[in-house]
Amino acid sequence: MKRLSVLLAAGAAALALASTVTAQPAAEGSPGALFAAGDFAAARAAYEAAAKASPNDAAALAGLARARLYDNRNDEAIALAQQALAAQPDNPVARQTLAVAQQRKASFGPDRFQVSGPAGEVAIPFAVTDPLPIVEVTVGGRKAEFLIDTGGPDIMVSADLVKELGLPIQGTTEGVFAGGARAQVQHTLVPQLEIGGIRIANVPAGVRPAAGAGIPGHRTDGVIGTGLLMHFLSTLDYCQGRLVLRPRSASAQFERAAAGANVVPMWLVGDHFIFARGQLKGGAEGAFLIDTGLAGGGVSAPKTTLDEAGVVIDPSRAGVGMGGGGPVTVIPFRAGASLGSLRVDDMQGFYSPSGDPSSVFPFKSKGLLSHGFFRRSRLTFDFDAMKLVTQACEVSARRA
User: Fold this and answer.
1) What is the three-class DSSP state of 75?
2) 218 pLDDT more than 50
3) How far is the C-alpha of 254 from the C-alpha of 257, rounded, in Å?
4) Measuring CA to CA, which residue among 133, 311, 332 is closest to residue 239?
5) What are phi and psi of 125, to 5 degrees?
6) Distance (Å, rounded) from C-alpha 218 to C-alpha 201?
7) What local confidence, expressed as pLDDT, does residue 210 receive?
8) pLDDT tens track for 329-374
9) Which CATH class is domain 2-7+260-399?
10) Mean pLDDT computed over 316-329
11) Domain ranges in the chain?
């Protein structure tokens, strides 16, 4: 079996899946069925109607609480979850929704992610853009290179860097990685990280087993994940090869300026998983994980999504890629996909017969869209408006 030049998405670790209560069978068209299908906007509307009709219905309140959590409206999620628990103290959806919403709020508390430095827009150049963007950061006074991967949690740091800086290990959890592989992940706290003149104190971090060597000429000592990016209005500008960080308070101004761009709703699941509704060419629309950490490809999908889209898999082309949980069997394929008006007609994809990491979610995920899909765009995550915005590089150039 050949070794493929691919670093699989979710290499940073799929952590804190505290909101992933197993979905129960639900009647077709019901709020639960809409949620299980990954149609979060329709599910939210249905839960709102059910809660209005029956204000003490614990299931409706819990479902609406989880919908608000996915909308990143954490205070509302907490209030609704507490109402559901008052009506039914052992409601699992309400309990786990409450825990995740409180965890998210804590990450913006006084003892985590304390941001200081330049108040406006900051652009950090990519050291390289392909196969994945790398930026320079300073950790504990030491310069290091970190990958950017929205499939990852807060940040990840290599065990070598943890040892060099003398960072204490604060606990261990289980991560779910490419191919469904599971592995133990240690945790620490980085006292200060600096990027582009922005200083961020008390940054929670997972620990990678070792420094990465998958990109020639670069030793990556860490990963910047969604947990850090969500503290800013963050843009992965593949057009100019840079990471742009703006204050989240710039959301309204940014959205006004983005008129005419490709703007789609996004949802935040668990502590860091970004979902948006897209489509594999030939298949039905559904929820895709927006995970930019798939080096060498733009899409990965389970067999059900590929079959639905008419994508034929050739097992004789199977090879081995490297995921966060170790080597994983992968089979390459070619397919097109769309997300709003962003369409890529032919790109490299990877299917893993080893397992589907998205099976941990309590709804149907169609797969993930990644680096190769967004490579000719500016990709912005607006966690205030809960919008994902893309602008094609050629359009950006004309406007400039």
Assistant:
1) helix
2) yes
3) 5
4) 133
5) -70, 145
6) 26
7) 63
8) 999 999 999 999 999 999 999 999 988 888 889 999 999 999 999 9
9) mainly beta
10) 79
11) 2-7+260-399, 31-106, 114-248
What tokens does 95 get? 């309990």
Of 266 and 395, which is predicted with more confidence? 266
Task: Fill in the amino acid letter for 199.
Answer: R
Tokens of 282: 């030939």
Q: Return all residues near 212 (Cβ < 8 A) that are at least 6 apart.
A: 7, 147, 158, 219, 220, 221
Q: Which residues of 364-383 are buried (b: 16+ CB within 10 A; e: fewer)?
A: bbbbbbbbbbbbebbbbbbb
> Which residues lie closer than 8 Å to 253 by C-beta, 6 or more apart?
none
Instruction: Just give the CATH number of 31-106.
Output: 1.25.40.10
Classify 150 as helix, strand or coil. Answer: coil
* Residue bearing tokens 């030049």: 5
Mapped onto helix, strand or coil, the DSSP state of residue 322 is: strand
11 versus 127: the higher-pLDDT residue is 127
Q: Please tell me the distance from the alpha carbon of residue 224 to that of residue 297, in angstroms, as a whole number.
A: 19
Same fold, 2-7+260-399 and 114-248: yes
Whether domain 114-248 has CATH 2.40.70.10: yes
Q: Say if strands 286-290 and 365-369 run parallel, antiparallel, or are unpaired.
A: parallel
